[in-house]
Specification:
By secondary structure, the chain is an all-beta fold. The chain is 2% helix and 43% strand.
Length: 465
Amino acid sequence: METRIPIGRSSLRHGRRLSLTAALALAGAGLAAAQRADLVIADFEGDGFGDWKATGEAFGVAPATGTLERQMEVTGFAGKGFASGYHGGDDATGTLVSPAFRIERDFINFLIGGGKHPDEACANLVIDGKTARTATGPNDRPGGSERLDWATWDTRDLIGKTARIELTDRRKGGWGHISADHFVQSDTPELIRGRLDLTIDRPYLIWPVKANSPDKRRVSMFLDGSETPFGVADIALDGNPDFWTFTDLADFQGRKLRVEAAIPRRHAEAWKKVILSRTYPGREVLHREPLRPLYHFTSRRGWLNDPNGLVFRDGVWHLFYQHNPYNHGWDNMHWGHATSGDLLHWTEHPDALYPDGEGYMYSGSGFVIAEGTSPLAGGGAVGLAYTAEGTRSYLPGKKTAQGLAISRDGGKTFAKFRDNPVLPHIAGENRDPKVFWHEDTRHWVMALYLDGPDYGIFTSPDLVA
């Protein structure tokens, strides 16, 4: 990734409409309200809970200061402490209740994580003995993350009322706990809605990124008015970035692009730096950086891992690879794409597969479709078989499954099969499909890792059934 090189001012003026909605868009009261200081309800930074009352065992006798025994790593809390319902493990139960306070601001912002079990593992805003607002963590199935993330209660209709915050843990078993931190009354929500409406007349959408930041937010990109994003990414925007990176939109020139994200309010200025550009920061020194490998292929930006889908077609070698364009490390899994005529000199192209409603794009294989072997495409088309890591989808209930994408332009661009997955979730991780045509039996064969020591072999006469 290239760092600390400014974008030309001319790029800011072209083809762009920007809006920051939610509290920043409130008419009239916005400027006056923004001048009022936030009111901290609790930040859990002390040695105990103060005036908060704990019952049962779940929340212990004091805030947690990190990951507890036998717990996955906890991240995303503010400061040194947070309220954790994992004291005693998932089977412990209890409550943690705040003293009464008067609602004086339009919003209550807070961090929350853990289980997604309404009424059983949750944070509640209680008024006159009744739950007026509630929130849970994101997890209701194995896997997941112990990361706390921002949530907001809109309290504009509750101004002047007396309330308490009640953290409840009545759930036992998997994800039977809740974590919470930093309850603050404010006149702006912690997350504001950012939106860009663009006509794509330049190839690069530029992002200012902070490395390894807890402020990663999901960005969704839509084409031509579609309500289904063609790609999503988790990006930590920052007005003072550690590096600049980009989305390569060369294959989408002339089309309409809408970009949406929920942005931490302190990073609102960074959203203004997301622009279309004819070039990208660091291009003039690309492949001349002192620490960049020159013998092995490396991507222009971001991180790369497994080679996927190695294909030779019409004198061109195609290299696909696991790719995170927006940071270092295992995240945002795309399929990067590069081509070569001699396996030594490579040209990088826009990413071939984007994370979307199927989830992250995990490893797989590529192949050339011979004439008459599949109704998906004519002879010579290039196919990709990949694992869609559905637990990273924005759609609920997704699992890891196997999908197909087909290129009818020689491997330049790919369209995902509309009836994916071609092989639904079977067991465990079930990932990394290796697909090839077996001429003797006139069948396609998929070798697939399942779980533990188990592998599977699947066959299809047409890549579909």
